[in-house]
Amino acid sequence: MNERDFADLAAGHALNALPEADERAYQEALAGNPHWSSHARDAADAVAAISETVVPVEPPASIRASLLARITDLPQAGSAVPEGDPVDAEDYAAAGPAPIEPEAEIVSAPSWEGSGWGMRRWFTLAASLVAVLVLGFGAVTIGQQLTRPASIVALEQVTSAPDAQSATATMPDGAVVTAHWSASTGQSVLVTDGMPALSNEQTYELWFVRDETPIAAGIFSTDASGRATAVLEGEFHSGDVIAVTVEPAGGSPDGTPSSAPVVAVATA
Question: Which GO terms describe its cellular component (predicted)?
């Protein structure tokens, strides 16, 4: 067995779909070539990654009914052979001994050993089946991934950066505000919990305070629990103070804070 064929078997093993003979061949090849274990890990990781994207969904009852209908249409083993007309029955005893036909040569199925083509075709089919499951039963999850709010995507980008940092401040009323930033990406995100609700004529506005100069960075609103994930507009600079003020709906009319910050988070 060559390494490419082993990689194909590793894929089938990860899907728990190898016939007994192929599973034995896989285990023997792995024992004899421990340096091929990376293929087994890669296949297991790929299957795990795919399975995590699929939300378990109860299949519709119509699928079961359709399968049972197809099964009943298949010829059943041991079915009685239709009886012919008695007048057409042949007198085999009178016909004498039946000629002995030479025994048909038993042709074994082509082995997957060597070429790997059969297993690769099988794995392609298996991968296609997984794709169908993901696109069918996992469509909701995939749709959610594609339609995630931009603020959540930005937060993940910031927190996964190698130089990601954060700082938390607590407001007098107990609201918690956490600033996340990354100098290498130039991004910053503010996450709030318990911020006081504002009237329809007011909004929260974000600011970079840089060298004591406030720079407008966008407005945001919170949900009923005072939660929000707000991306600051503009590039973050190391040492900026991230501040929040309460402004008229639509933001400060002249581009400068109209009130003292309700919260400020230092990043230095």
Answer: plasma membrane
- Predicted TM-score of the model (pTM): 0.49
Task: Give 68-122 as a DSSP string.
Answer: HHHHHHSPPTTPPPPP--GGG---TTTT-SPPPPPPPPP-PPPPSTTT-HHHHHH
Least confident of 142-146, 161-165, 181-185: 142-146
Range of the domain at 125: 1-55+116-147
Of the listed ranges 2-11, 134-143, 226-235, 249-258, the least confidently predicted one is 134-143
Side by side, the strands of the sheet bearing 213-220 are: 213-220, 202-210, 241-248, 263-266
* Residue 87 within any structural domain of the chain: no
In sequence order, the 6+-apart residues with CB closer than 8 A to the CB of 59 are 137
My answer on whether 190 and 139 are in the same domain is no
Measure the CA–CA gap between 59 and 265, rounded to whole angstroms: 50
Cβ-based neighbour number of residue 73 at 10 Å? 7
Is pLDDT above 90 for 210? yes
Following CA atoms 259, 248, 180, 160 in sequence, which dihedral angle do they give, to the nearest 10 degrees?
-160
pLDDT of residue 78: 54
pLDDT of residue 135: 46
What is the CB-side half-sphere exposure of residue 109 using CA atoms within 13 A? 3
Same-domain check for residues 121 and 162? no
CB atoms within 10 A of CB 215: 18
Which pLDDT does position 29 carry in this prediction?
Answer: 83
Q: Which amino acid is at 254?
A: D
